[in-house]
Amino acid sequence: MVSRVIASPSKYIQGPGELSRIKDHIGWMDGPFLFVMGGFAYDNLRQIIEESFKDSGVTLVYEKFGGECTRKEIDRLRERYRREHCTVTVGAGGGKALDTAKGVAYYEKSPVITIPTIASTDSPTSAISVVYTEGHVFDGNLLLPRNPDLVLVDTEVILQAPVRLLVSGMGDALSTYYEARANVASDHGNFAGGKYTNSSVALAKLCYEILIRDGLKARESVEKKAYSRELENIIEANTYLSGVGFESNGLACAHSVYNALTILPQCRHMYHGELVAFGAIAQLVLEKRPDAEITEALQFCTGVGLPVSFDGLCSEELTREELMKVAITACGPGNFMDSEPFTVTPEMVFEAMMTADTLGRRYKTRT
Ligand SMILES: [Zn+2]
């Protein structure tokens, strides 16, 4: 028997000024609410939240997030949660702050609400918290039994975030459909305790179509700090479609290459989605996809400003030995190469990355 599972937050709300209506969205719960807030959220969003809850009599407890999602940080916030007799956890900030809030909610068995301040991560929707050690080394994934109860996205807040973060989110979202397609072909399991559904694959495909159609306009929107419907669409693609898409379909080559590239000190300055986008193109090469599809991906990436070759990804040139190490790591434990519908060897990944790099360089210098 095969379980078909789609994992999704209970409710997803997105729009300009949505945060100023937060009481309408969560006020039906009694509180007190513990707000775990990243630096930007702590400094800039508290007043909006206060205003919304004005005269409601609900207790709002604010805690500034310490900067890394560690077990110690989760414990510190749990202590505050208990001391203030909180009943709901709210995370506001980037992926790490939200992952921490989800961790607190998991251990305290409370509902959790996520308020992303950037659109470059899948954390707002997923039932996974990525935990690090005090030394910022990956410590493991906390697999949560359920997705957030509410994801609240204020487009005006996202509009204020740096453009590179929105673009990085698009790079992460680019791989969603490719990786879903690989999992469908291999009939592989997803992160939701089963296998893909027709709905989850359709969401991944929609994610891709929106990126190709609206990516460039959304980028311009953030550059000019001017709201647009295209920006709204891309925020939804980066946050909801990519989030539900990856969790309910699974990952494959693109994220394996990402994981492996993070071992290189030359790539440490890059954002998650920037490395994933290169992994996505390497995946298309690995799967011997038609030229037209690879060109569409290259056109998208160069258009929105995602690097497509090693000179844009690495601070120093890579040696063949280093690249081979990346290829071996990408095929190693903890990665997702077995989601591809054929056996993948490190040599094949090495070749795919080299070819992706060549195609990327050639595309950039085309006349
Ligand atoms: Zn990702």
Explain what the structure shows.
The longest helix has 27 residues, at 198-224. A six-stranded parallel sheet has the order 1-8-5-4-2-3. The chain has helices at residues 22-26, 39-44, 46-53, 71-83, 95-108, 155-159, 163-186, 198-224, 229-249, 253-261, 272-286, 291-304, 310-313, 320-330, 346-364, and strands at residues 11-15, 33-37, 60-64, 88-93, 112-116, 128-132, 138-143, 150-154. The chain folds into two domains: 11-159, Rossmann fold (3-Layer(aba) Sandwich); 166-364, Dehydroquinate synthase-like - alpha domain (Dehydroquinate synthase-like, alpha domain, Up-down Bundle), CATH 1.20.1090.10. It is of the alpha/beta class and 367 residues long. It has 15 helices and eight strands. Helices cover 53% and strands 11% of the residues. Zinc ion is lined by residues 122, 172, 255, 272, 276.
Which features does this protein show?
alpha/beta; Dehydroquinate synthase-like, alpha domain; binds zinc ion; six-stranded parallel sheet; single chain; Rossmann fold; about 375 residues
